[in-house]
Specification:
This protein is of the alpha+beta class. The protein has 10 helices and 9 strands. Helix 2 crosses helix 4 and helix 4 crosses helix 7.
């Protein structure tokens, strides 16, 4: 038998040591990060994040997912979740299972399902050790890229600010492919965790669709092109659509959002139905609320199917969808032509916000 000092560690021992170093590195990061961040003391926010996060962490620690980037071994951590007092819609993780969520993101998510989608994504970054992988790959090319950076700086930049920007942009461009791989793998891996949870996987899609919409709406202000540190959200939306289709999960946005859900606002002798913030029509009479509430599941199924505007039309006082009655309006209710116009307006908004 070889002496103890000459024995090589087993693969299991090496793996355990790697994860231990991840945690040590993560603790160093958090010490520095928290010098600049202001952590929230809102117990309701903290408890919400920790409740949802701990459920997903338990799944991640028991579920090995074959990834497309990073380390696909079963890398278990004691996850720590913290809330940052910051209005930006953001969340991030550092090695070893330390996850930070901004209070602004908690205002932006429209359900615990969407919060679970974000946390599953961040947990996946840690469990597949993306930052460790990225750091190793960047270190491999640092010496190779230095001449390129110098050439770009000396050949294109005249001001000190431009020198810094050129170096930053070139460095980001060279690593953007790795970041893209990490983001897409986190979506895929997080999706696998969500499928094993009580949370609805469509929430990953709805949250990403809103990011893609914001990205598209603000694209005129700045276009970083290949210099993005993350892939375009639209690409991630398309990838999530493919994952949902492969898992045979219907895209029922009404189950996980308020933006794409029909609701009833009761009034005195009148009830108004809305799709998100858009008024659809109002019903009148003593039974207005009962009629309105009976229509909610029917209308949610309608909008969840993302129908084309031309698929709904008038037939007298009825709104007919694909030849089947959807809504029947009475005297005193919103006029049928107005209701039809409002529904079509909502369909246009749905398509514009979720389409490419």
């Amino acid at each position: 038998m070889l002496p103890v000092w000459s024995q090589k560690p087993t693969p299991e021992e090496k793996h355990k040591e790697e994860l231990k170093k991840d945690v040590e590195l993560g603790k160093e990061y958090t010490t520095e990060i928290e010098k600049d961040l202001k952590l929230s003391d809102d117990t309701s926010l903290i408890e919400r994040v920790q409740r949802v996060g701990s459920e997903l962490a338990a799944i991640a620690n028991a579920t090995q997912v074959q990834g497309t980037y990073g380390d696909s071994r079963l890398n278990a951590f004691e996850y720590v979740f913290k809330v940052v007092k910051d209005e930006d819609v953001n969340a991030f993780s550092v090695p070893g299972g330390f996850v930070y969520v901004n209070s602004g993101l908690l205002k932006d998510v429209e359900s615990d399902d969407e919060l679970a989608a974000v946390l599953a994504h961040e947990i996946a970054h840690a469990s597949h050790r993306h930052l460790i992988t990225l750091t190793k790959e960047r270190n491999k090319v640092d010496m190779l890229t230095l001449p390129l950076i110098l050439a770009a700086v000396l050949g294109q930049s005249r001001e000190a600010g431009n020198l810094v920007m050129t170096q930053q942009l070139l460095s980001t461009a060279l690593t953007s492919g790795w970041s893209e791989k990490a983001e897409l793998d986190s979506d895929k891996t997080g999706f696998a965790y969500i499928l094993k949870s009580k949370y609805h996987p469509v929430a990953m899609l709805t949250f990403m669709e809103r990011l893609a919409f914001k990205e598209r709406r603000n694209s005129a202000k700045i276009d970083w092109g290949i210099y993005r540190t993350h892939p375009p959200s639209r690409k991630r939306v398309d990838a999530l659509h493919a994952l949902l289709q492969a898992a045979d999960v219907p895209v029922a946005r009404s189950k996980v959002t308020t933006s794409y859900r029909v609701t009833v606002t009761p009034g005195e002798g009148k009830s108004t139905l809305k799709f998100g913030d858009n008024v659809l029509f109002a019903l009148e009479g003593a039974d207005a609320t009962a009629r309105a509430e009976a229509l909610v599941p029917k209308l949610n199924d309608f909008f969840d199917s993302s129908p084309k505007m031309f698929s709904i039309r008038l037939l007298g006082e009825k709104l007919v969808w694909n030849g089947r009655p959807l809504v029947e309006l009475r005297t005193g209710d919103t006029a049928a032509p107005e209701a039809l116009a409002n529904i079509k307006k909502s369909l246009f908004s749905l398509d514009y916000r979720t389409g490419g």
